[in-house]
Amino acid sequence: MCGIVGYLGKGRTRQFVVSRLKKLEYRGYDSSGIAFNKDDKIDNVKAVGNIANLENLITDENEVQCAIAHTRWATHGKPSVKNCHPHSSQSGVWSIVHNGIIENYQEIKEKLKTPTDSDTDTSTVAELLEERNAKTIGDFVEVFKEVQGSYAIVAMNSNALDELFIAKNRSPLYVAENKGEYLVASDPICFVGFAKYYYSFNNYEYAHIKNGKIKFFDAYMNELKKELVELDDCFEETQKFEYEHFMLKEIMEQPEALKRQVKTYRDTNVLAKFNKEFIEKFDYISFIGCGTAYHASMVGARYIERLTGIRASAEIASEFIYKEPVFANEKTLFVFVSQSGETADTLMAMNIAKEHGATCVALTNVLYSSLAKQADYVLPVCAGPEIAVASTKAYVCQLSALYMFARHLNNQIEDKQYNYLKDIELVSSKILDFDQEKINHIADAIKDEMNPIFIGKDLDYIAACEASLKLKEVAYVNATNYPSGELKHGFLALIEDGTPIIVFATEDKVRTKTLNAAHEAVSRGAFQITITNDGGLGYDNLIVIDVDNEYLMPMLEIAPMQYLAYEVSIKKGINPDQPRNLAKSVTVE
Ligand code: AGP
Hints:
The protein is α/β, with parallel strands linked by helices and 589 residues long. 34% of the residues lie in helices and 24% in strands. It contains 19 helices and 25 strands. The chain has an eight-stranded antiparallel sheet with strand order 3-2-4-1-10-9-11-15. α15 (436-446) crosses α19 (558-571) and α16 packs parallel to α19 (558-571). The N and C termini lie close together (11 Å). 2-deoxy-2-amino glucitol-6-phosphate is lined by residues 290-293, 338-340, 343, 346, 389-391, 473, 585-586.
């Protein structure tokens, strides 16, 4: 949610700073702005809409030595120039960019002598810095004793335009240096081509950049020593190349991503630590995530129960954090699933599990994320950077990691050597084997239908959930997902002539049941599309998956549905990479 870039150095154009900000557009794109030094003061440019609108307002190529920039996903105050970051204090002495939520902003507002100039929570911090007469890094850190909430903040001061001030709590922030020039960013993606190494901030850490040097501090102004982290090569993947959209590129990258997943698990033997002795400590496995990661969690729980016999469940993180966590104890293994590893609800759920003495595993695509840092164990997801808001390759790689994890535990428990790596190699070779033209026709047939329904049973039902989420997200279609057995308990009343019913029927033991439920809907006018591994079904609109392993179906049956959602989005003139009202990484509760 929101992207931040800060620059301090001998001089770069504003276009350079904004080009770095563009790499963060996936984090929010409803408005953007940049503040920079000009004639010994702070000047700024802001625009509503995506970053291209800001770029259009920056015409000259004059260099600036100090700049902060921001791309916004609105939390407090609607998208407008007034609410766009950077926010300044009344006299303009402080200007700041912020990711996160200042939870006590109302309280701060009441303390302030001067009203703030926007509806945002952020303005209150800019004003507080001015009213507390902050000048030095020590003063800056002191002001944060009055600030509660999540924040990654980069600030500039008009009386010290050769300095940058940084604060971080519960919102990611990084900084890199190259020959005395500094870039600060909310994702290391921004450092590609600038630096090979970077520093990462922990919670309640601060930094001050001046005279080509950076100093890190804790909340008591103790100076901290920090280790440099090497920039991952896979960040180079963050270009669209010949693809028009990241979503399509990421769908098409799935075979490669799965190969990388297999290679990592084989070469590093990451699962070895989950041995018999380890697994015997637990009698329950709880998977937790949000959105698509919750769907992966559902699949993970099914894999565990079927393959290991250990009780397992999946919970939505934002629900779990307000539940009575009766099963959170030292006999429960928690697996937190998150592409970004920065989802606020998932992080809060992990904190609760830890407070109850549970062991926590992070299954994440971002190994430098807060979730990975806070977990007892990490299961890497090797999808590579995922830029499109809709998760595609990360979901399939999450499922592959969960499958290998469950099979590995089964090997430990039963003392056998089942080669699950081969299964994922098979998925990699088959995942794009669907007929794109057929999907294209289906996209035409359903694009104007308002209420398609996705049904299935057991693992197929989870595919239905994920497929309908994809269509909602990128094509603004009010798709519903239902367990097939539930249709006759109420939903059938909504079936009309032409209602699309997308039927997942890949599991032998439940296929007939699901198809029967679909027939009941078709008898009442529904228009059926079927995804199955039974090529002999002889239906129209059949998408056949030619693999005989029901555990692999959740990976194989979702790819054509991701492509369907992409096609419907394009046909409706929507940019699937930047669907309205959404952002990639939900770092606020
Ligand atoms: C997926 O297409 C969505 N963009 C969304 O549901 C996402 O999966 C969810 O916000 C969780 O994100 P995470 O995996 O980064 O935690």
